[in-house]
Amino acid sequence: MTTAEESAAPGSAPQTSPGDHWPAVSAVTLGTFLLVTAEQLPIGLLTAVGSALSVSEGTAGLMVTVPSLVAAVAAPVVPALVGALDRRLLLLGLMALMTLSNLASAAAPNFAVLVSSRVLVGVAIGGFWAVAGGLAVRLVSTENVPRATAIIFGGVGAANVFGVPLGTLIGELTGWRVAFASLSGLALIALVALLAVLPSLAASQPVRLRVLAEQFRNPGVRVGIIATALIVFGHFSAYTFVSPALQRLSGIDERYVGPLLFAFGAAGMIGNFAAGAALSRGVHRSVLVIAVSLAVAMPLFVLLGRTTVVGAILLIVWGLAYGGVSVGLQTWMIKAAPQAVEAASALWVAVFNLSIGLGALVGGVIVDALTLQGVLWLGGACALVAALAVRSTRTDENPRRA
């Protein structure tokens, strides 16, 4: 089996190998699309669920917070608990759990049952991501790993652009229970697809707690974890409040916020695939460019985004830059730990999800206690420190070397 430690010749176009499993890559992409949709769908259904189950919108927000925190714990724990279990069986089991948990959400008689079902969603998200994030190195040949990783992470952008808005629309037209039931049906389709095309994926090295702890001795993994924590924390501390920022700082009418957020997601998809292409030519340089772009885009929103046009342009630039974060940092982790991809990926997914929750929490405190502009400065500062951490490593194709 080839590993991500080997690199393709600079400028060479990816070639399809007889051993490449592109249908499996597509099925895993469908899985990531559904996972992110399931995690974020309640954002658009808070009012409807709160009204139907007699809870406040703040309490209903637990439908988003709970699975994110559970996923942060499940990412390293699930691979460790299953040991040497065939990863094909693990992914099938987790997608089956996603199917049943969303069905339970749709049928929940009260909010306690609904939140309990969201705990199971968090387990599925964390476990699936921990394995799926590093699957490209096992499904395609070495020169195609960046492209396959970009396709898998394209499911994230697609969920933001299509999945969550369409799920919200279904909820508005037919009821929130139908929205969750529809997600369960799509998860069943993904389960069948994975069953049909995913090859056997024996665990080359079972993930144990000792293996997880050992990753922190790898300087490349440490830098990847630090950069992930800073960038994701900073982004979500600011992006959680992007709607009021567009309205108050750029003077954009509330009617146009939705279309602009759609444009942000579309730009993110473009950034994802652009980063995937750039990563095949240089991981270190690509991640550094992403971090620097974010460090510039968010503060510029405060300094220059005082008009509708400039605010919209800077939002799209922000989306382009952030679109490359997932594929860029996941590829960094693969390059940093080619012999322990699953363990490094599990830590990465845990930090990623934890940073989402903490970023939104701290951002809320800053907006309430200080100013709206403060979260944009914080986001830029975090990205700048992440860029300095990445810059501190040697500029070569192996982030393992500090």
UniProtKB/TrEMBL annotation:
Keywords: Cell membrane, Membrane, Transmembrane, Transmembrane helix. Its main location: membrane. It comes from the Bacteria. Residues 24-398 form the Major facilitator superfamily (MFS) profile domain. The chain crosses the membrane at residues 60-82, 89-113, 119-137, 149-170, 176-198, 219-236, 256-279, 286-304, 310-334, 346-366, 372-390. Signal peptide: none annotated. Residues 1-20 are annotated as: Disordered. It is found in: Cell membrane. Pfam families: MFS_1. It is a multi-pass membrane protein. This is Transporter. It comes from Streptomyces leeuwenhoekii.
